[in-house]
Amino acid sequence: MDLAVNVNNLTKRYGDIVAVNNISFSVNRGEIFGLLGPNGAGKTTTIRVLTGLTKPTSGTVIVADWDVVLKPTKAKERVGVVPEVSNLYDEMSAWDNLIFAAQLYGVQRNERDKRAKDHLDLFGLYERRSDRVGIFSRGMKRRLTIAAALIHKPDILFLDEPTTGLDVQSARMIRNLIKELNENGTTILLTTHYIEEADQLCQRVAIINQGKIVAVDNPEKLKAAVEEHHIIEVSFSPAQDLNDKLRSLEKVSNVSRVGDKFRLHVEDASEVVPLLIDFARENNLRIISINTLKPSLEDAFVEITGLSPEVMATEKEQVRREKSASVG
Amino acid sequence: MKDMHSSHLGKEIRVAWAIAVKDMRTYYTQPPSIMFGILFPFTLFLAFTIGRNLPLAEQIPILISQTLFFASSSIGPVVIPLERADQTFDRFLTSPVSLLSILMGKTLGGITYGVLISVIPVLVGIIVFGSQIANLAALIACFALSSLAFSALGILFASIPGQTVGQVMMPLNFVRIPLLFISGVFTPIGQLPAWMQAVSFLSPLTHTVELASYASGGDTFFGPILNIIVLGAYAAAFVFVSIRFNIMNQRKE
To answer: A131's torsion region: left (phi>0), alpha (psi -120 to 50) or beta?
Structure first.
């Protein structure tokens, strides 16, 4: 198989803290590959090593056939990087940001204008080309950051949390762009804490938790792996936080809350349903609905990591809000 | 092979220049650049000159030296922490550009700022006070070597990890301000005690002041050749150490 990225036994330590612990994975050429995990799992550190921002403590990383430690410049010529925070120059116009990115990547002078125009057109920003980036919305900045990362026509695109903090419309636009880029031959490696996003976009996903990769496979296979476990979705009235009580029920391995419903991971649904009816009676609750579900990628994630996906999203959003507040 | 090397070198120079031009357009008018690069030397100069009955025309070389010193050394410490804070510095590090090119660009940005600001007192001297340039070569050497040395000094301090201008500017000023007192800015070196003269020889600013003074027809205590040699040595040392410090800093990442 033709590999775009090959990571072997990568470890990254910061003093006593092991951010990434002996991970190995590879990304096939032409693939969309996702690193899925909660905040602090080691996704961004992995991306930082892959893009040459940080040196690994041990292990080897080959990107576009080049070792990123031994031949960083050669590897960097072939990749585009979209960090979690849009790193554009707010004081410069959209056009000047793209021209500067083209200069950094050695795009020939006679090509720069054409590429800047094409990319601004592609990302729907040409009409705003002369505006200062500082006045752009978060979604527009994100699109321009991706445009800047693509200005030298890279083979591989790294995206760190591409849709975090975006409104629904912008996030959908970015996801469609990622799909289009991939259809046109660009290999994509992205990190995300949105399970749904990984499921929609990625051909393969690595689930990373506490610096270790705990599973690598395509989303359907990950779901199939947990199919022997049943999922019961139940909602009660009056609505209240019942996670801990439900978790203490016999034969329930995990509980997560999705809107007004609770998802219970169980070994045998037929044994747990009567228990739920008793539980409702004892707690003076009325069962509004009760269904058994096929496992989703989220269920696979919960099963594999033992983490609640809600907690993961909440943590990340909180960090983002704190960052925004400190910048503001 | 030779062509490959020259094309690689050409690419590095082009990137360094692009970075310098971007810094000029983006950061020259930022408040910290104006504050530490322009207001600081001019205010210090006026504070020292006003009320002392010193002929202003004779003080122009001092002003030129101070602006070269402060303006050149301020750009790196303003630009680099700000770029670290908004993560635009990472843009350089993820692009196929060597750290040397990035630092070359940053140094060029400081040199250009220092030269542009310091040309103002030269023009004021000529137009307002009728001063003359007695030795153009000395003035060019003074501008070229001083702006290079001080810009590299700023880049050296900017290797201190930090995301605010203050985190870099405070230790830099801890070095810059004491240098004013031993470099012939306030008291001519000839009037200092022998031990102070020996100390002032070690200050790069001394040699900027002396060359600027020599260029406008004044005397130099150490002689223009020695001034040029010492400034050249400092320029080379600061460039070398700033590159080493930044590489060390990068390795810690």
So the answer is: beta
Superfamily name and number for A3-223:
P-loop containing nucleotide triphosphate hydrolases (3.40.50.300)
- What ranges do the domains of chain A cover? 3-223, 228-293
Q: What is the residue-wise DSSP string for B133-198?
A: -S-HHHHHHHHHHHHHHHHHHHHHHHTS--SSHHHHHHHHHHHHHHHHHHTTSSS-GGGS-HHHHH
List the single residue in B88, B90, B96 with the smallest CB-CB distance to A73: B96
How confident is the model over B34-75, as pLDDT tens digits? Answer: 888 888 888 888 888 777 777 777 788 999 999 999 999 999
Cα–Cα dist B35/A279, whole Å: 69
What are the backbone angles phi and psi of residue A324, rounded to the nearest 5°?
Answer: -60, -40
- Average pLDDT of the segment spanning B136-154: 95
User: N- to C-terminal Cα distance for chain A?
Assistant: 47
- pLDDT score of B141: 95
The dihedral through the CA atoms of A163, A168, A173, A179 has a sign that is: positive
Q: List, as ranges, residues 143-202 from B with C-beta within 8 Å of A.
A: none
CA distances from B250 to A195, B238, B247 (A): 34, 18, 5
CA distance linking residue B68 with residue B119, whole number of Å: 9
> How many whole angstroms separate alpha carbon B100 and alpha carbon A57?
23
Full domain range(s) for residue B141: 2-252
**Interface residues on A facing B, Cβ-Cβ cutoff 8 A:** 48, 51-55, 73-74, 76-77, 79, 81, 83, 85, 87-92, 96, 100-101, 103-106
Evaluate if residue A116 carries a pLDDT over 50. yes
Q: Cα angle at A161 between A158 and A163, to 5 degrees? A: 115
In chain B, what residues touch A134 (CB-CB under 8 Å)? none
Cα distance between residue A26 and residue A8, in whole Å: 8
CA dist., res. B231 & res. B150, Å (int): 10
CA A266/CA A243 separation, integer angstroms: 14
Measured between alpha carbons, how far is residue A118 from residues A147, B54, B168 in Å?
10, 62, 40
Question: Residue A311 has what pLDDT?
Answer: 53
Find, in chain A, the residue whose alpha carbon is nearest to that of B163: A327
Predicted structure pTM score: 0.81
The total number of structural domains that make up chain B: 1
- In this structure, how many other beta carbons lie within 10 angstroms of the beta carbon of residue A328? 5
CA distance A208 to A107: 36
Q: Looking at beta carbons, which residues of chain B come within 8 Å of A101?
A: 91, 95
- Alpha-carbon distance A23 to B213, whole Å? 63
Lowest-pLDDT choice from A21-30, A185-194, A289-298, B33-42? A289-298
Q: Looking at the domain A228-293, which fold is it? A: Alpha-Beta Plaits (3.30.70)
